[in-house]
Amino acid sequence: MSLHVLATGPLALVQDRGRPGFAHLGVPRAGALDRPAAALANRLVGNGPDEAVLEVVLGGLEVRADAACWVAVTGAPAPLLVDGVARGHDRPEWLPAGATLRLGRPATGVRSYLAVAGGIDVEPVLGSRSTDTLAWVGPSRVAAGTTLPVGRPRTEPRPLDVPHARRHRPLRLFPGPRADWFAEGALEVLCAATYVVEADSNRIGLRLDGAAPTRLRETELPSEGMVLGAVQVPPSGRPVVFLADHPPTGGYPVVGVVHPDDLWVCGQLRPGERVRFTPARPPSPGWGPGAATG
Amino acid sequence: MLAPMPVHLREFGPAAVLAEVDDAAAALALATWARSRGVAADEVVPAARTVLFDGVRDRRALDALIEAWSPGEAAAPGGLVELPVTYDGPDLEFVAGAWGVDVAEVVRRHGAVEYVASFCGFAPGFAYLAGLPADLAVPRLESPRAQVPAGSVALAGTWCGVYPSGSPGGWRLLGRTDARLWDPAADPPALLAPGTRVRFRDAS
Hints:
The complex is a heterodimer.
Chain A: E1 2-7, E2 11-15, H1 35-44, E3 53-57, E4 62-65, E5 69-75, E6 80-82, E7 85-87, E8 92-95, E9 100-103, E10 111-116, E11 147-149, E12 171-175, H2 186-192, E13 195-197, E14 205-209, E15 224-225, E16 230-232, E17 240-242, E18 249-250, E19 254-258, H3 263-266, E20 274-275, E21 277-279
Parallel strand pairs in A: 12-21
Antiparallel strand pairs in A: 1-4, 1-11, 2-3, 3-10, 4-9, 5-8, 5-10, 6-7, 6-9, 12-19, 13-14, 13-20, 14-17, 15-18, 16-17, 16-19
Chain B: E1 8-11, E2 16-20, H1 24-36, E3 43-46, E4 50-54, H2 59-68, E5 80-85, H3 92-99, H4 103-112, E6 115-120, E7 127-130, E8 145-148, E9 152-156, E10 159-162, E11 167-169, E12 172-176, E13 197-202
Parallel strand pairs in B: 5-13
Antiparallel strand pairs in B: 1-2, 2-4, 3-4, 6-7, 6-13, 8-11, 9-10, 9-12
């Protein structure tokens, strides 16, 4: 079966868990920004964790299915209509053959996830169906007129599942590898301030306006590998939290790293919203430096 | 000769470690060696002076592995790729001026070097090729070009690079090649994966 795309909002993309393993060739990992929401959508319709879903920015998506199927919408609470009738969030819904599904603009958050039983079955690129918006590796962005193939459902939907708590707590922050490039207490500066999300935030990074830690070294940092959640401080002083489509290498010092379990929040913050950091508990013993040598 | 610096490890969040070494050659050597030993990490990313190990599944095993590496040991040589180049780039004259030679000599010197792909970055399949001697370093453009065509062969500092796709760029353009630098259907998808040796042949 397939979904015919009739309309999209600002941006709709196919995403799965991304394509790790190619950073050394210059390829971003991509993948859903709100991973728990995408995983929940897959579970609700009986998909495995690696199936691809649609990541829909600020609603506006309209699709028609050519065969009946189970669907689920999670993440930002975009009002869901099936042939004009309101349906629920975070639960499996039946989409009859020929029916039109429409997502309205969510009152909060940015990204909603639409899973279809069987998964969006576009051709994988380097083992993943995710679209990377930095280098545009993977499928093209979803546009009106596109037909998206859907795979064969594996199991029945699983209606009894719960979304994770979606409260926006402060982002837990680990020290970064270049914290020593900043004046002492750089992490404390970050954790004491309140930041405002900037309008040019996207899948590459969450750009923040607010107090900048003082940089000590003015020498240029040779490019080095970057991780998901790395907080870079460019010369503008405005911190950037690297998200799924971040460049695999970068030349600005990384002062901190956001806890992986808090990254979904970064994908749901709107421009103008406020965000804070808080120190993360250090990783478990045996992880720290010199653990092998005692 | 100075003894090579021991590897210095920097913590990079709860699942990654940044290993600092002397230079790009040492980074490539460590990354190649760690991969050949089956290091348990999702990503092994060499760069100018570091190797990032990300998605590390066993930190103690990684520490032991890095400790067992001998700095100063060169990377096992990779495969050789020869790229035909039409030397008609807009910065040929500039490079000739910077080197104090004529254009024919720029072509000769550029083609006389065997380069090694140290690491990738900037774009999928864009390799930083090491090998140009320090006295042939050239500065980048003061403001980057809005569009550099795919296949452009270029210099910045002592690095040589080939643009896999059209993009903005600030490197000095010597010419162009028809070779396909990036092909997601190929294995590996990058023609110039780290460790690959590269020669340029004048096809003007």
